[in-house]
């Protein structure tokens, strides 16, 4: 497996060559403020005790408290968490919110745990890290395989330890436990606002044909939002494979089918395709919404989409970036495309601290102009430096961090 942190540092190096940032600043950004590894003992249902490895990386807090999700996955390891924390620091800067970058994780396949084991593990993660977490210090959120229910357990554990009643130490909570309206769909909805803001610039048609990799929080809501807006979803996949219909998939039916059967496989009116083939679908827009390193030097040449919008973090590695740039396939980078998630997380934190509850309309009315403004500024930065949108986004983020950082 490729090291995502090395890829993130290659992206940083590329931008440092384009724009004249101070060497001291770039050197500082090559290391997180701290990376913490913990072992979490969990009493299993059979009476044994199992030790899990967990992480929290606090990358940079020049702009505000560290902010970033917690990932539960069997392949999660420190370099992945470091890369994700670095991207979070840039993402918060791109969104212009007063938050820094962090990320957490546990090496675990949550599907192998009972609900009770999962709860004890999640509470254990907070117990080991309660000293460094907090509304004004470090504010986690959901990521792959972590849910509002898990956020509620973590918040409850934190309250028990510290007495904090604001609920603002973690975001992505259920609505009745201090969560924000719109948080569940925010990442996909934000991606859609960015898409609308850049559609003309990307030379995309009014109604697009789309392929989406991943059918979790980001991917499934993206499919729903784009199809409700009249676009055609040709193909979708999850970890077990995908489905394709040249006339378009019925997304509501597909969501129900996946809920009932646990899989996309066997969905009526569709052909089955592999994840590899999905990435090669002939379409207007490809939306990777699963994991990092999906498009690499090995398959970038086979991509036939007219443009790519990264809802996942780090789905395209630096080698593939170069290939796609030469093929004239523009990429809307993750730190812009999926920044709706963290922006609504910030709204949740803000509501908790002010003891307010905003309507979904209020949330999205606040979100849209933020993303449109970021998209416009990033486009201008990329044109100014005659580079791609990813470098444009990095330049915007780095300038904002450099203005506030103390070296
Ligand atoms: P999720 O756990 O809800 O869903 C992940 C999906 O990816 C699942 O459908 C899974 O089956 C699928 N998947 C796993 N391996 C795959 C593979 N090899 N090919 C195709 N599909 C595969 O996670 P999520 O929250 O939707 O996150 C997906 C991506 O979006 C991650 O990169 C995450 O960091 C990023 N992201 C999520 C949010 C958010 O708010 N949820 C915010 C910003 C970024």
Question: How would you concisely characterize the structure shown here?
Answer:
By secondary structure, this protein is α/β, with parallel strands linked by helices. Among the domains are: 31-166, Rossmann fold (3-Layer(aba) Sandwich); 186-327, NAD(P)-binding Rossmann-like Domain (Rossmann fold, 3-Layer(aba) Sandwich), CATH 3.40.50.720.
What do these coordinates show?
- The model has no long low-confidence stretch (mean pLDDT 97).
- Among the domains are: 31-166, Rossmann fold, CATH 3.40.50.10860; 186-327, Rossmann fold.
- Strand 6 (209-213), helix 7 (217-228) and strand 7 (232-238) form a beta-alpha-beta unit.
- The chain has a 7-stranded mixed β-sheet.
- It is globular, with a radius of gyration of 20 Å.
- It contains 14 helices and 12 strands.
- Helix 1 (4-18) crosses helix 3 and helix 6 crosses helix 7.
- The chain has 407 residues and is an alpha/beta fold.
- The chain has helices spanning 4-18, 23-28, 78-95, 115-129, 148-162, 186-198, 217-228, 251-261, 275-279, 318-326, 334-337, 339-354, 360-384, 389-404, and strands at 34-43, 49-60, 66-73, 100-107, 138-142, 209-213, 232-238, 241-244, 271-273, 285-288, 307-309, 331-332.
- Nicotinamide-adenine-dinucleotide binds at residues 142-145, 187, 213-219, 237-239, 275, 289-291, 311-313, 338, 341.
- Substrate binds at residues 67, 91, 345.
- Belongs to the Glu/Leu/Phe/Val dehydrogenases family.
- This is Glutamate dehydrogenase.
- The active site is at 103 (proton donor).
- Keywords: NAD, Nucleotide-binding, Oxidoreductase.
